[in-house]
Structures are given as structure tokens and as C-alpha cells.
Specification:
This protein is 17% helix and 34% strand. The chain has five helices and 21 strands. The strands form two sheets. Strands 1, 5, 9, 10, 12, 13, 14, 18, 20 and 21 form a ten-stranded mixed sheet that branches. A hairpin with a 2-residue loop joins strand 6 and strand 7.
């Protein structure tokens, strides 16, 4: 089964990419399986979520430990480890999710507003796994943790937003049903008006204004001086090629985001510097060894 994608924008077609693994209910459907695969904060047990939507970062098929600090969620990046993003839709509506890694859309590597971005489709109560950068309608290249200098962003000149994963969810808009009302049905007529008011589409002009503002902000950021990529901070690389067939579909989306999830990731040294995890300190073990030291053993000298 191929994953589906939608184009970004107001009422234009949306490109929905086929996720590598789409899980609906208890069954799992795979898209062209490739055969691969100083403040102390306690790890957060639940995954990052907003309004019930969730994003998990998996390394070797297991959820990475998460930490909550400064109002954000953090994950420890393991250098050279491949990872995937498991995204869950808990609602009864189909949704499209704009997914970016290091500030780049996972479908086309563009940096844009979430509304303008190409999106992945998640069925009602469904789960998808995105394992890499989509390179064509057939293939993707795996995500893996690496240094900023070796990152995919550094290779294509987009290094202003390294170290962050973001997902913004948009619900599919349902058709409005208008029922003919007779003059004697005033109460029903009033109720229908209220329903229509609640479901009235948001004018596309507001979305356009937001898009222009975001683009201006992006230009300002690119104009400001920014530290060059280094070999100490974590970023995401572009790895081996895997099969991932995708299909474009059309969707009419509500322009108001239904949920947003953001995850920051760093190597352990970075998390220590930020005060997210405690500093490793080998000195207590050394002192324990030295405290147990003795000048003599009640024995003769050993044979060499």
C-alpha cells in the first residue's frame, strides 16, 4: 500500500506521502517494505502530544527517552544512530501533518509555513512512521543523528534551524449539509444557522497574510549572521536509500491547526550544558577505589 501526501496551501491539492508503515486499528499496512530498519530532570513517561496528537522518536524501534525542561521536550541524540518518527492521530477525522526536521520539510526539504508545506496524511485513529527524507515517488533516505557539519541541512545550505523536529496537524474539512426549512420550523432553522456558522470556512486571505509574515521573518533570519555548523552539536543526516512509494491526493483542510508538537534534540554533552541532564562524574568511583587501598596484603610476594 502506498502512502499519501497533500500539497500545501489553502484550497489547492495536498500531497500526502505514503508513510513507511501505516497502522489503523490493530492491523498494520506497509508501503513497499524495504526490508530494513545543573538541574536534574526526570525522563517524561508519555510522548510529546498536543490535543491528543503525538510524535515519538524511535531509535532501533524503541522510543527514545524524553526530558521536559524550559517548557520544551528534549531527546538525547545518539551519534550515527538511525531514527524514525511515529505519528499518531487520535481523532475520528482524517488529518494532514506538516512534518519538518531541522527546519526542512521531510517531503521536499523546503522551509515554509506549516500551512504552505506539503503534508503527510494520517487516517482516523491511524499511525504512520516516517523514516527519512522523501527523495522521489518511490524512495526515501534514512534519518540519522550526526554532527551539524555532516548534516543534510549543511549539505544544502539550510543550517538556521538544526536540532528541532516539528509537526503541525490540520483536520480535513467535512462538507456542510444545508437542510430546507419550512417557515414553521423556526427553532430548527436557528440551530442550522448556528451549525453553519461554526463550520464556516476561514477566509483564505488570513492564511495568505500569515504566510507572507512567515516569509518575511524567514528572510530576516537568513540576513542575520549565524554561527557556522560545528562538529559538537547534533543534527540529522541523509542516509541510506530505502523504498517508500507515495501517492498524491486532494484534501480540503481546515486552516486552523488542530495540534502542534515540537521536539528538541541534542547529544548528551549538549543536554548537560543546557542543564537538562546531570553531568557525568566519574570521581566518586575513583575515590571509592582509593579509599579501599591498602599498604600491605597478608601474603608473600606473588610470582611474576
Amino acid at each position: 500500500m502506498r502512502n499519501r501526501m497533500v500539497f500545501g496551501g489553502g484550497f489547492v491539492a495536498f500531497l500526502i506521502l505514503a508513510a513507511l508503515a501505516l497502522k489503523v486499528g490493530a492491523g498494520t499496512v506497509r508501503a513497499r517494505d524495504s526490508g530494513e530498519s545543573e538541574l536534574t530532570i526526570e525522563p517524561v513517561a508519555e510522548v510529546a502530544d498536543d490535543n491528543g496528537f503525538s510524535v515519538e522518536l524511535l531509535i532501533d524501534g524503541h522510543p527514545a527517552a524524553e526530558y521536559f525542561a524550559r517548557g520544551r521536550r528534549y531527546v538525547e541524540a545518539l551519534e550515527n544512530a538511525e531514527y524514525e518518527l511515529r505519528i499518531h492521530n487520535p481523532t475520528s477525522s482524517r488529518v494532514a501533518v506538516a512534518l519538518s526536521v531541522d527546519g526542512m520539510n521531510t517531503i521536499d526539504a523546503r522551509h515554509s509555513s506549516a500551512w504552505d508545506a506539503h503534508k503527510w496524511v494520517v487516517e482516523p485513529y491511524g499511525t504512520i512512521s516516517v523514516r527519512g527524507w522523501q527523495m522521489s515517488s518511490e524512495n526515501a533516505r534514512r534519518f540519522y543523528f550526526t554532527t551539524e557539519r555532516d548534516s543534510y541541512g549543511a549539505k544544502i545550505g539550510q543550517t538556521a534551524n538544526l536540532g528541532v523536529i516539528a509537526a503541525v496537524f490540520f483536520r480535513e474539512r467535512k462538507p456542510i449539509v444545508i437542510t430546507r426549512v419550512t417557515p414553521g420550523q423556526r427553532e430548527e432553522k436557528s440551530a442550522n444557522r448556528e451549525d453553519r456558522s461554526r463550520n464556516e470556512p476561514v477566509p483564505s486571505a488570513s492564511g495568505s497574510a500569515g504566510t507572507l509574515a512567515n516569509r518575511d521573518t524567514a528572510k530576516e533570519r537568513s540576513a542575520n549572521p549565524y554561527p557556522p555548523p560545528d562538529d559538537e552539536s547534533a543534527a540529522t543526516g541523509i542516509g541510506r536509500t530505502v523504498q517508500n512509494g507515495v501517492t498524491w491526493i486532494k484534501m480540503d483542510l481546515d486552516p486552523r491547526p488542530a495540534g502542534e508538537v515540537t521536539i528538541r534534540y541534542e547529544f548528551r554533552a549538549g543536554l548537560v550544558r543546557l542543564g537538562i541532564v546531570p553531568r557525568d562524574n566519574p570521581r566518586p568511583d575513583v575515590l571509592n577505589r582509593r579509599e579501599k587501598a591498602e599498604g600491605f596484603e597478608p601474603k608473600y610476594c606473588p610470582q611474576p
